[in-house]
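Q: What would this chain look like folded?
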Amino acid sequence: MIGSLQGRISHKLPPQLMIDVSGVGYELEAPMSTFFHLPAVGQEVRLLTHLVVREDAHVLYGFGTDDERRLFRNLLKVSGVGPKMALALLSGISVEGFAHCVHNNDVAALIKVPGIGRKTAERLIIEMRDRLGSPETQGAVVIPVGASAESEAFGALVALGYKPTEATRLLKSAGPGTHSTEDLIRKALQSAAKE
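A: My prediction, written as C-alpha cells:
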C-alpha cells in the first residue's frame, strides 16, 4: 500500500490534487481540512495516504495529519459509510470536533455536514464511541517522535485493536522497571493471553 507521498503539487482543484513524485503524477482526493493547509501549486508537500481499491477504480486519498487519516480509516469501518462520506465528514468537521460530537451524542452537529442524515449520524455516534476512546485518553494515541517506550507500546496496543483503557491496564501488568518498547508489548500481550 502507498503510505505517503512527497513531491511537488502540479494541480489542485478541491477535492482533487496531483502530486508529481519524481516524474510520476499521483492523483489524490483530500478533505478540505487538508486542502486549507496545502502550499501553492509548484511547491513541495508531503501527505499521508490511504488507497481504496474498488472494482472500477483505485482511489488514493491524501491527509495532512495522521489524526485525519486515522479517523478516515475508522469511518470506513462504520456500516454504510464509504470513502466519499468519510471525506465529506472530514471536510465538514475537524477531528476534534467529530470526537466532541461522538462523546456528547451531538447528532444535530453531525447532520449539518452535507450527506449525513439523522440515522447515519446516530450510527456514527454508536459505532465510533469505542473506536475513539474516552476524551481523556484520545489524545494519548498520537505518539510524538522520540516518545517513551511506554507511549510507543501504548500506541501499538491501540493499533492492534485494544481500547485505550485496556492498553493502559495491560501495560501496568507488564511490571515496573525499564523495558524496551518490544518487551513492554510482548509482556502486555502475554498478560492478555493469560486472562
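Strands lie at 4-13, 16-21, 24-29, 44-53, 58-63.
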